[in-house]
Amino acid sequence: MVNGKMCISAGNDEMMCRIDPNVFEAALEKNGCRPMIHSGRTMKGFVFVNEENLHNKKEFNYWINLALDFNRKAKTSVKKKS
What we know:
There is one protein chain. By secondary structure, this protein is of the alpha+beta class. It is 27% helix and 29% strand. The protein has two helices and four strands. The chain has helices at 24-28, 57-73; strands at 8-10, 14-18, 33-38, 41-50. It has a four-stranded antiparallel β-sheet. A hairpin with a 2-residue loop joins β3 (33-38) and β4 (41-50). It is globular and about 40 Å long. The mean pLDDT is 92.
């Protein structure tokens, strides 16, 4: 979470990044990138990047910066009442 908004999540062998939906299709063309699919629906703006494609600082920073850039523009989610 960055600024109260989902941004990046690290898993066992991949990293999830929330990115600008406007660059979603271009991001999917990068090696090791796949869309997030939730309940059979593609979540435009969320991608998974395989760890095999994060071995150098330039590649890692590309995805981190893409997520952080969108985070500035993303709306904060409305919290559910418990």
